[in-house]
Design a protein that fits this description.
CATH superfamily of the largest domain: Medium-chain alcohol dehydrogenases, catalytic domain
Helix content: 25-40%
Largest sheet: 7 strands, mixed
Number of helices: 10
Order of helices and strands: EEEHEEEEEHHEHEHEHEHEHEHEHE
Distance between the termini: 12 Å
Strand content: 25-35%
Radius of gyration: 19 Å
Number of strands: 16
Number of domains: 2
Amino acid sequence: MRGYGFLRIGGREQQAFLEVPEPVPGPGELLVRVRAAGVNPGDWRMRQGFYGTEGPAVLGREVAGTVLAAGDGVTGFAPGDEVFGGCPGMLGGFAPAALVTASFAAHRPDGVSPEQAAVLPVAAGTAYDTLKNLQLKRGNTLLVNGAGGGVGVQLVQLARLRGLAVVGTASPAKHDLLTRLGATPVAYGGGVTDRIRAAAADGIDGALDLVGGEALRFISGLVPAGRLYSVADKPLVKQLGGAEVVRDRSTAVLSELAHLVATGRLDPFVTEVRRLDAAQEALALVEDGHATGKVVLIP
């Protein structure tokens, strides 16, 4: 089987199409014929060695597709079911077939396309879990540092559904989108903390950082103790007294997100759909930060 991944830890020069064995579902796993796969920052971070996978490995952390087989102990799914979920291990979703963790999978409802469903486990799931971690109340203000990307766009929508005010830092090209979604956009760069304070007259009640580094340091002093989370720079956020988002990778969360999409309350905001042959360009869009919303690959 031909899949797109990386040969060893390093830069983009390590990315390549690989010949790999057909995956076989183990206990608690589904074998899925891939119909769509989401592209995420976690893909290039895996290539850079963030998750301890040395390679060779096929990338792709989330997919939608058709169940071909189920491993031992799997209940609730059968061959022919249309599903979506998260991929374990080193044989990811940038391939014609992939393994999916059954406990982090759900049936794809009518009215939700494979492209839409494929991008829910990572970005929308992270956004959903962030709000669960923060436990903010209606009327509170949420700061999203890097609001124009895949997770940020989902988080703005979910936060607004819960009655939260949202301030989002983003490049100027993404400000119109954030305004349409109901957030107050703030430009990056010098003076950003003053701009955030001006946009949130009553202060910030909680924040999710999606940028890391100095951008995370800039906002840390604006957030109450215990209310700063980051998925982009876990070591630094802990140094600053914050925490990483605790994920709830469950069927229940995926089913809830799909229901929100099916009923028109959540837009997965898929902005780029590329053939698998264009995986290199799709990954570059995400790694360079040029993607607004979500990028999807289709075999």
